[in-house]
Design goal:
ABC transporter transmembrane region fold, alpha/beta, Rossmann fold, 12 strands, 10% strand, single chain, 616 residues, 61% helix, six-stranded mixed sheet, 2 domains, four-stranded antiparallel sheet
């Protein structure tokens, strides 16, 4: 469905549930002015050369009118030759000035495009993970690729073309009025059809192109989700459903494209007809005035030529209106990230509020201060105004404790891990570390305090070293190798170029378990206060998984480790076990205490231990 046309006076960003915002028109204009101010000198120079090029373009028709009058008055060949040379000189000067103006415009456009890209990356990185997840990676990807490229094309090509054409059109109209005001008025009145057609188009084009961009984002999200979850689609027989979803997205794109195509099919024929009207009007009125002796024949011819020449810049402007509308909608989507919620960038607490990370190499247990205690009090949480997933949860996690969280699927374990990692904030209640709400910690401090590791992982393009240095920029090769060894990544020793081995489609491909171990090695290097493991070893075989978890526990000795336990052996090795059901904490204690209590955990343990099959 096409969205309503935004108010011309509204500065509020347009958005919807689960969608990234779209900037209002006033906000887009302010952003454009801000970009121009960042390169004012280049912009002014570009305007000056465009104006000079437009001015020299007026020389030809005026001199041609002089030639006609000279011939009519019986002037000699020498006079005509001099005027003709003037026409040639004006054409050459216009060519050189226009070429240099375009060169300046391209440089201005490329620099401005670079600023837009850098600004977009900064804003995208500042988005809370929960916002990105709800909006979908497809929307953010479409904005960062298609929309940024479209806006850049306007800055580099369309913008300069429209600017030059606008200056030329203004100068031509001024020239006609200077030749004869009455003929100038006839020409302007003849252009009113263009004004009405363009106004009709502009009132409908902006929302139509916004809908087209939204349709592209929706289709990109469907395709990305289908590609990334191809194995799941195949395993659960979801092929027909995903094909249907893709066809729905494609259909929405087709409808959006048909809408913009209809608008263009009305605009351009109306414009073509309107071009001839002012020329005909000037010839008719000018002929009558010439018969009365009010104007010379050269003036009439020059005015008609000017108005005929006017069709070229107007054609450029009007044909680029489509691109301007498309890029305007794209820029509104790119600039919309400025109004999206951001994670804090300034320290929210004094530097002493949270303790520094203790030395992992120190012998014996590490003494962690109570300032690093995690407190969960009265927490409720729901997704998208649905039913509560967590219901009045209360839990304290002691510094340096290894806590296992168990429970059936849908109990809220993964949701709790997201709250503990600061990805989501509770709807009610508090989740704090050292008395500070985790979700309010700035990113640089949050990454030092809490790290969440899931079975979802990413291998970045680059070398093994590049992938590991993300977590610790100053780490030595020995520390990188030690981190890989700590998580059982023995395969790294056999890589052809060691830490310099290129990873990715054009390099060495890591299978799922190896990529997961690479992610865990980053955790070792990041050295967080609190580590949250949510199926972090799910892709490893049970023996390797247990070895990896114990290795992590040894390396991260003294740190707080919270494990969403899908293998009960993990709960057995933990200091305490928290049992969740229906979003509530139903049991809490050591493994031995819970087994002795004979509750839900004991039943799970006896079932798993007796059959030697994981129950969770």
């Amino acid at each position: 469905m096409t969205p309503a046309t935004p108010s011309h006076h509204s500065d509020a960003a347009e958005t919807g549930p689960g969608h990234l915002p779209v900037a209002g028109r006033r906000q887009v204009r302010r952003a454009a002015v801000r970009l121009i101010r960042q390169d004012t000198a280049a912009f002014v120079t570009m305007i000056v050369f465009n104006a000079l090029a437009a001015a020299t373009g007026l020389v030809g028709p005026w001199l041609l009118g002089r030639i006609i009058n000279t011939v009519k008055d019986g002037g000699g060949v020498d006079a005509v030759d001099r005027l003709a040379l003037g026409i040639l000189a004006g054409a050459v000067a216009q060519l050189l000035l226009a070429r240099h103006a375009r060169y300046l415009a391209h440089r201005f456009g490329e620099r401005t495009l670079a600023r837009i890209r850098e600004q977009f990356v900064d804003r995208a990185l500042a988005l809370p993970a929960s916002i990105v997840e709800r909006a979908g990676a497809g929307d953010l990807t479409a904005r960062g690729t298609t929309d940024v490229a479209t806006a850049g094309q306007t800055l580099r090509d369309t913008g300069p073309d429209v600017l030059v054409a606008a200056v030329q059109a203004l100068f031509i109209l001024c020239a006609v009025f200077l030749l004869d005001p009455l003929l100038g008025a006839c020409g302007v009145l003849g252009l009113t059809g263009i004004w009405f057609a363009t106004r009709w188009y502009l009132r409908r084009a902006h929302p139509a192109y916004l809908e087209q961009g939204a349709a592209h984002s929706s289709l990109a999200e469907v395709l990305a989700a289908t590609a990334s979850g191809a194995r799941t689609v195949e395993a659960f027989g979801l092929r027909d459903q995903r094909v249907a979803d893709s066809e729905t997205g494609i259909g929405r794109c087709v409808v959006a494209h048909d809408r913009t195509l209809f608008l263009r099919s009305v605009l351009f024929p109306a414009i073509d007809i309107s071009y001839a009207v002012p020329v005909v009007a000037v010839l008719i009125v000018g002929g009558l005035l010439h018969e009365q002796g009010s104007v010379s024949l050269g003036t009439v011819i020059a005015s008609a030529l000017y108005l005929r020449q006017l069709s070229q810049p107007l054609d450029t402007i009007l044909q680029q209106v489509e691109q301007v509308q498309s890029s305007g909608a794209s820029f509104a989507r790119v600039e919309g990230l400025a109004t999206a919620p951001r994670v804090p960038t300034a320290p929210a607490t004094p530097a002493t509020a949270l303790t520094a990370a203790p030395d992992l190499t120190a012998p014996g247990p590490v003494d962690m201060a109570d300032a690093d205690r995690i407190e969960i009090r009265g927490v409720h949480f729901a997704y998208s105004d649905g039913a509560d997933v967590l219901r009045g949860l209360d839990l304290s996690v002691h510094p340096g404790e290894r806590l296992a969280i168990v429970g059936p699927s849908g109990a809220g374990k993964s949701t709790l891990s997201r709250l503990l990692a600061g990805i989501d904030a509770p709807g009610a209640g508090t989740v704090t570390v050292g008395g500070i709400p985790i979700a309010e910690l700035p990113p640089e401090r949050l990454r030092r305090q809490v790290v969440l590791v899931t079975q979802e992982h990413h291998v970045f393009l680059g070398t093994v070293r590049d992938n590991l240095l993300i977590a610790a920029e100053s780490a030595t090769d020995a520390e990188l190798s030690a981190a890989l060894t700590a998580v059982g990544a023995d395969w790294s020793d056999a890589l052809p170029d060691g830490l310099d081995t290129e990873l990715g489609p054009r390099g060495h491909r890591l299978h799922g378990a190896q990529a997961q171990q690479l992610a865990l090695a980053r955790v070792v290097l990041a050295d967080p206060h609190t580590l949250i493991l949510d199926e972090a070893t799910a892709l490893l075989d049970p023996t390797t998984a247990r070895h990896t978890e114990r290795a992590l526990a040894a390396v991260l000795r003294g740190r707080t480790v919270i494990a969403i336990a899908h293998r009960l052996q993990t709960a057995h090795d933990a200091d305490r076990v928290a049992v969740m059901q229906d979003g509530r904490l139903t049991e809490l204690g050591t493994h031995d205490e819970l087994v002795a209590a004979g509750g839900a955990y004991a039943a799970l343990w006896h079932s798993w231990h007796g059959e030697h099959l994981p129950a969770l």
